[in-house]
């Protein structure tokens, strides 16, 4: 026993700051405080002794703000991309419960928090009470969301699926870039149909890529599956599509994060004929996180500027 009851790392705005679920399979109900790029992280470290008056010797107390990437198959290798630290107390004795304020001002948090199949990107505060034999360490996780501004160009997506003299389908989606609460609106046109199509579905595929070169791992996950049509279409027919993205657990598109991983999304159109042959057409879409209206204007500006830079 360390002789300590600690409420390490209490944030200054703990009561009012929004909390969001952490995307981790083990504890889906866990929530953490939400931060944006450029926001300060301030608060205090409260250390409560179990027995007042009984001394706790230490070699110093410090707090760190850390951002790191963990690749699950590369255990033991953590890639730190942010590390800020502050000394809270010099070596000495604690004889009573005490509180140390801390502040990390306008912290650059350039990546979005992410928890996937093979990789995790996380931010946390780490309090260390240095001791001769074993340090006392406490961590407090934070979630970071990356905001973007509306894309300057957002042209429609047009695609064709064709099998010579058998099938010719064109499909069109209203945009190629969507925010996480957007609606994908599209249309499918049947120009030539000489094979008997049994049904047709549209799915969103998430592809998480880790590593590089020969050590690249691709993990595909079907996020949604949406039956567009059951039964045979006729020539000249068009089928409307409306897909509400807010119903799904999506992240923004992430490209080459710290040269460690990427997360991309694809619309996958599948046609199945009466002989159960499957025809695919896949098209990448870009997802981005829109600024919530509740966000203070100064934070929205910081976040949007940061994203325009990248």
Write the layout of secondary structure elements.
Layout (H helix, E strand, L loop, with lengths): L3 E8 L7 E3 L9 E6 L4 E9 L6 E3 L2 E11 L6 E12 L2 E3 L3 E7 L9 E2 L3 E11 L6 E10 L11 E7 L3 E7 L3 E3 L3 E11 L3 E14 L6 E14 L7 E7 L9 E4 L3 E13 L4 E11 L8 H13 L1
Parallel strand pairs: 3-12, 15-22
Antiparallel strand pairs: 1-4, 2-3, 4-9, 5-8, 6-7, 6-11, 10-11, 11-12, 13-14, 14-16, 16-19, 17-18, 17-21, 20-21, 21-22
Features:
310 residues, mainly beta, six-stranded mixed β-sheet, elongated, disordered C terminus
Structure notes:
With 310 residues, the chain is mainly beta. It has one helix and 22 strands. The protein has one helix at 297-309, and strands at 4-11, 19-21, 31-36, 41-49, 56-58, 61-71, 78-89, 92-94, 98-104, 114-115, 119-129, 136-145, 157-163, 167-173, 177-179, 183-193, 197-210, 217-230, 238-244, 254-257, 261-273, 278-288. Strands 2, 3, 6, 7, 10, 11 and 12 form a seven-stranded mixed sheet that branches. Strands 15, 17, 18, 20, 21 and 22 form a six-stranded mixed sheet that branches. Strands 13-14-16-19 form a four-stranded antiparallel sheet, with no helix packed on it. Strand 17 (197-210) and strand 18 (217-230) form a beta hairpin. The two termini are 47 Å apart. The relative contact order is 0.17. Mean pLDDT is 86; it is low at 300-310.
């Amino acid at each position: 026993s360390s002789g300590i009851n600690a409420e390490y790392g209490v944030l200054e705005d703990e009561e009012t700051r929004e909390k969001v679920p952490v995307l981790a399979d083990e504890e889906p109900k866990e929530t953490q405080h939400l931060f944006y790029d450029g926001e300060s992280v301030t608060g205090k470290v409260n250390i409560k002794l179990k027995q007042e008056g009984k001394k706790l010797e230490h070699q110093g107390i410090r707090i760190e703000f850390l951002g790191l990437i963990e690749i699950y198959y590369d255990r033991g290798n953590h890639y730190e991309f942010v590390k800020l630290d502050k000394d809270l107390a010099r070596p000495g004795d604690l004889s009573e419960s005490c509180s140390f304020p801390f502040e990390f001002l306008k912290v650059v948090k350039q990546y979005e928090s992410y928890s996937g199949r093979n990789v995790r990107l996380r931010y946390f505060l780490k309090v260390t009470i240095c001791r001769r034999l074993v340090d006392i360490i406490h961590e407090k996780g934070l979630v970071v969301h990356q905001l973007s501004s509306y894309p300057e160009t957002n042209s429609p997506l047009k695609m064709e699926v064709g099998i010579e003299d058998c099938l010719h389908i064109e499909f069109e989606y209203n945009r190629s870039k969507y925010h996480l609460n957007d609606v994908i609106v599209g249309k499918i046109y049947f120009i030539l149909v000489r094979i008997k199509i049994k049904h047709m579905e549209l799915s969103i595929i998430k592809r998480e890529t880790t590593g590089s070169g020969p050590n690249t791992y691709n993990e595909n996950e079907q996020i949604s599956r949406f039956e567009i049509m059951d039964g045979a279409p006729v020539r000249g027919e068009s089928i409307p599509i409306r897909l509400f993205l807010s119903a799904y657990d999506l992240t923004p598109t992430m490209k080459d994060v710290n040269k460690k991983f990427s997360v991309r999304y694809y619309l996958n159109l599948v046609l199945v004929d009466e002989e159960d042959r499957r025809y695919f057409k896949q098209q990448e879409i870009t997802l981005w996180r829109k600024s919530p209206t509740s966000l203070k204007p100064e934070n929205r500006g910081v976040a949007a500027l940061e994203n325009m830079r990248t």
